[in-house]
Specification:
Distance between the termini of chain A: 43 Å
Structural class of chain B: mainly alpha
Number of strands of chain B: 0
Largest interface: A-B, 58 and 36 residues
Low-confidence stretches of chain A: 610-620
Strand order of the largest sheet of chain A: 6-7-8-3-9-10-12-11
Strand content of chain B: under 5%
Radius of gyration of chain B: 24 Å
Structural class of chain A: alpha/beta
Mean pLDDT of chain B: 85
Radius of gyration of chain A: 26 Å
Oligomer: heterodimer
Distance between the termini of chain B: 12 Å
Strand content of chain A: 15-25%
Helix content of chain A: 25-40%
Largest sheet of chain B: none
Chain lengths: ~625, ~300
């Protein structure tokens, strides 16, 4: 098998304020014809940088300082700009992360696709037939009609299908898919992954699959490379890497993913976070060493060469550390004692939330959209209820109804026995707090961490003079596991995980009895996610906090929640104790959703075969 | 791009500067802000210390030396560096004293327009609904009147005088603030931190003042600076047509109006006040544009 793409000790160096930093170090791997290689790592690992090396779109001040990238036997780095550009689209195609932003919003799908076909040198007369053929292949319904549509008129999954069709249209030798499913729902992810795999097989294309999801990579790829802070720390056949991980980072990454089956155990969480570019210079040896359990002095100073641990499976770690980092099984999570007889913290009775839109001339025609259709459920004090659903299922609306940011159009909501159908939000709802999904938007950039955490003390009966707020803030820092020196910092100076902790801490500052957490771990890396989840479990145990945990991630919900609600298109389709719902789902939607998650066991075939397709589309 | 996320570890080392200090540091590095600020500062010094700086009394007439050219031209005199006008008054001194009227009107009118426009914008953008519709429609209606006609009409109604010039500028230009600030307020008001403040029991006034106003302050500062320049031009136009200051008080517009009659014999009389006005307005525009770039976090360069 000839190599379509090979990286040979590639080092990318960035020049920043006079220093040069190796952003990627000695990356070597190769990709044969029809082969699939996965690059896995958390944000900041440098996996997208590899995609940029291939496309030649490195940021300013970044350059390949050593090594060789060959494509089809040619040295990519030696090619001129125009020769390289000629390769892109024709021989090397990309599937982007954000399908919506990759398409031009003011041009139709047809005109963009056609332009792409012209770029790859296909006669105009053949465009239309070819486009329809390709779009049908990626299972876009009404392909002919889709050509007339603008990107915003299609869903994210549909746009991604269009981009996949475009990527494979020129019969490229190599397709680079950079987190192609991260922005999509679980079920759409299963579809898209299968589509990419099908197209790849059909055209015999080599595929470089970049993702943060080790399990997903295990199902899709033949070989997997694990990236950490610009190093490839482990590389090998997917099954081998997933079953017998050798690098402590791979081990901890796998251990930090909550599982869908088996007993629930406390997730082991790595301390600290991935080093940023600025600190790379101080990490001459193994960049993982500061977080490694063994901290063997030899690997702190020097970088170890790859060591073979199996057929085609190598790792950059010392043999004597082999045993270290073998995650000991965490303690079993004790489910909170039965809360069935506890009083209800939240009671929804036939709650509906509708939005009205005015259309037509002078807004005379009005249309109604029900975000939540007649929801009836309750949350007992001290329990963690999970609400699961895909985007647009109405789960966020339920959260906003509970805290009072939305008022129900019909029905009744009781919070701690108090009716909350009417009345302003201000000053009345302090005992129910919402933790927002995106800490970037939820934290005022002009407040320091100290002023964010003590924001609740500025008004109302809990008013505390400014001079006495510090101890409260320090207590909240401890509760949320933040370093004590970050009180004076601003949210822009924190890492994503720290920001989310501040977000949680601010809500806790109001001393709530009930917390609604809306997708608070969805934007985080798994190791950070494990921290936050453990922190929430802790708070639930310590303060007997009632929690409503909204998420699309079934594994996370299973880890935290004692009971779950399944939402689909504004309706609660299934409700029950977590284990019961997972082991014996009743509603077809729940079944489909469970099937769509990449299973823990890499040997189980996934993505599911076409049979579930019709079932899923029947639900839409 | 995952690897270009600013490293928090690097930031951890030094004590983080406050947002304001950081903005100021950025501002000082921008050449626009430095040049614009220097011009504005020089003009303010001229205006405040006019009696000390001016070589002559601007009202004093030297009938022996009428229409004298600037000192570097042939026949110029060192006593009148920029020459004299048709009544033998020192042009440089008039220009220096003229800065007083220009800057006074510019600043006070800008403050008035900022207060009126921003207040309405905050109310309109934060509350939305019918309040927003009423205010926005009012702004639309107001903006459809031609500004020059509106201000001249207002001046005719109010009568002449500096106070009325300011009032008419405020009444014409508040809409600019209202419209621009409102859209920014709407963006900020939709942020989750505003909802979070509501859940923490903050009242509307407190949310507007503590959460929203600080976020739109950079925009307001920028608009204010640009507005000062606009105010100076409007004042010059109105004093050109004699609707502003009384006859004895030196103002740039008035100087231009008087020099107009002799512009073929003594062109410097008309060119010099125009240059003064041009430089002042340029200074404010440079400062405003520079502040817009440095204070807007979205336009600020990411430092890795």
């Amino acid at each position: 098998m000839t190599d379509v793409l090979s990286f040979d000790n590639v080092t990318v160096t960035a020049r920043m304020s006079g220093r040069s930093i190796d952003v990627l170090r000695d990356i070597s791997f190769s990709l044969g014809q029809g082969d699939i290689v996965g690059l896995v790592g958390e944000s900041g690992a440098g996996k997208s940088m590899i995609g940029r090396v291939i496309s030649g779109l490195l940021p300013d001040n970044f350059s390949v300082s050593a090594g060789k990238v060959s494509f089809d036997g040619k040295n990519l780095l030696a090619l001129g700009k125009s020769e390289r550009r000629a390769l892109l689209g024709r021989r090397i195609a990309f599937i982007p992360q954000e399908p919506l932003s990759a398409l031009n919003p003011v041009r139709t799908i047809g005109s963009q696709f056609s332009e792409h076909l012209r770029h790859i040198g296909i006669e105009r007369s053949r465009h239309r037939a070819l486009m329809i053929e390709r779009l049908t292949q990626v299972q876009l319904r009404n392909a002919e009609e889709a050509l007339q549509r603008f990107p915003h008129e299609l869903s994210g999954g549909q746009c991604q299908r269009v981009l996949i069709a475009m990527a494979f249209a020129g019969e490229p030798a190599l397709v680079v898919a950079d987190e192609p499913t991260t922005a999509l729902d679980v079920m759409t992810q299963a579809h898209i992954v299968r589509l990419i795999a099908e197209q790849q097989k059909q055209h015999g294309t080599a595929l470089l699959f970049i993702t943060h999801d080790l399990r997903l990579a295990g199902h899709v790829c033949r070989n997997v490379g694990v990236m950490y802070a610009g190093d490839m720390v482990e590389f090998g056949p997917a099954a081998s890497v997933l079953k017998a991980p050798s690098h402590p980072y791979t081990k901890s990454l796998l251990a930090a993913i909550p599982e869908l089956t088996g007993p629930r155990r406390v997730l082991p969480a790595l301390a600290d976070h991935m080093p940023g570019l600025g600190t790379f210079a101080g990490l001459g040896g193994c960049r993982f060493s500061p977080r490694c359990a063994t901290k063997d002095p030899s690997c702190i100073a020097t970088r170890l060469p790859p060591r073979m641990v199996g057929a085609g499976h190598w790792v950059r770690c010392a043999e004597r550390c082999e045993a270290a980092g073998n995650a000991q099984l965490g303690d079993l999570i004790s489910l909170p004692a039965s809360v069935a007889d506890a009083p209800a913290a939240v009671a929804f009775d036939k709650v509906r939330l509708s939005y009205h839109a005015s259309r037509g001339f002078l807004g005379l025609r009005r249309s109604r959209f029900d975000a939540v259709k007649s929801a009836t459920f309750s949350v007992q004090e001290g329990e963690i209820l999970g609400i699961v659903g895909e985007s647009g299922s109405g789960k966020t609306s339920i959260g906003r109804l509970i805290v009072g940011l939305e008022r129900p159009s019909a029905g009744m909501i009781r919070i701690h026995g108090q009716e909350r159908t009417t009345g302003a939000v201000h000053l009345t709802h302090r005992d129910t707090q919402l933790i927002f999904q995106d800490p970037q938007s939820a934290l005022n950039p002009r407040r320091s961490v100290m002023r964010l955490l003590t924001q609740a003390l500025e008004v109302g009966e809990s008013y505390v003079p400014e001079s006495e707020r510090r101890p409260v803030a320090e207590a909240l820092l401890r509760d949320t596991g933040l370093p004590p020196d970050c009180l004076e910092r601003f949210s822009s100076q924190l890492s994503g995980g720290q920001r989310q902790r501040v977000n949680i801490g601010r809500a806790l500052g109001a001393k709530p009895k009930l917390i609604v957490a809306d997708e608070i771990v969805s934007g985080l890396d798994v190791s950070v996610q494990a921290h936050i989840l453990n922190c929430l479990l802790d708070l639930n145990r310590k303060h007997r906090l009632t929690m409503v945990f909204i998420s699309h991630d079934l594994a996370v919900v299973r880890y935290l929640c004692s009971r779950i609600l399944m939402m689909h298109a504004g309706e609660i389709v299934e409700e029950g104790p977590t284990e019961a719902v997972f082991s014996n789902p009743q509603h077809p939607y729940t079944k489909a959703l469970l099937d769509a998650v990449p299973p823990d066991n890499a040997d189980r075939p996934w993505p599911p075969v076409l049979a579930t397709d019709s079932a899923m589309s029947a639900l839409r | 791009m995952s690897s270009s996320i600013p490293s928090s570890a690097a930031l951890k080392r030094e004590r983080p500067p406050s947002a304001t200090a950081e903005a100021l540091r950025q501002a000082i590095r921008s050449p626009r802000v430095v040049i614009g600020g220097a011009i504005v500062l020089a003009m303010v010094i001229c205006a405040v210390f006019a009696p000390q700086i001016a070589p002559n009394d601007p009202a004093e007439q030297d009938l022996l030396n009428m229409l004298l050219p600037p000192m570097w031209a042939e026949g110029g005199s060192i006593d009148y560096p920029f020459g004299t006008d048709s009544l033998g008054r020192c042009i440089l001194s008039q220009m220096i004293f003229g800065a007083r009227v220009a800057l006074f009107v510019g600043f006070v009118a800008a403050i008035g327009a900022t207060l009126l426009g921003t207040t309405l914008a905050l109310i309109s953008g934060y509350f939305g609904g019918w309040i927003d519709r009423v205010i926005s429609h009012l702004v639309d209606l107001w903006m459809s009147l031609p500004p020059v006609v509106l201000s001249v009409t207002l001046m005719v109604g109010f009568g002449t005088g500096v106070g009325n010039v300011i009032l008419s500028i405020v009444l014409v230009d508040w809409t600019r603030f209202c419209r621009v600030v409102r859209s920014e307020v709407m963006v900020v008001a939709r942020k989750d931190f505003v909802s979070a403040a509501k859940l923490l029991g903050f009242g509307n006034v407190r949310i507007i003042l503590r959460e929203i106003l600080p976020s739109v302050a950079p925009l307001i500062i920028t608009l204010f600076t640009l507005q000062v320049g606009i105010g100076i031009i409007v004042e010059a136009i109105l004093s050109f047509v004699g609707l502003s200051v009384p006859a004895g008080v030196p103002a740039w517009g008035q100087m231009i109006a008087q020099a107009r009659n002799y512009m073929y014999q003594a062109p410097w009389g008309i060119i010099l006040p125009i240059i003064a006005m041009f430089i002042t307005v340029l200074g404010f525009n440079l400062l405003g544009e520079g502040l817009r770039v440095t204070l807007d976090p979205r336009l600020r360069k990411r430092n890795i």
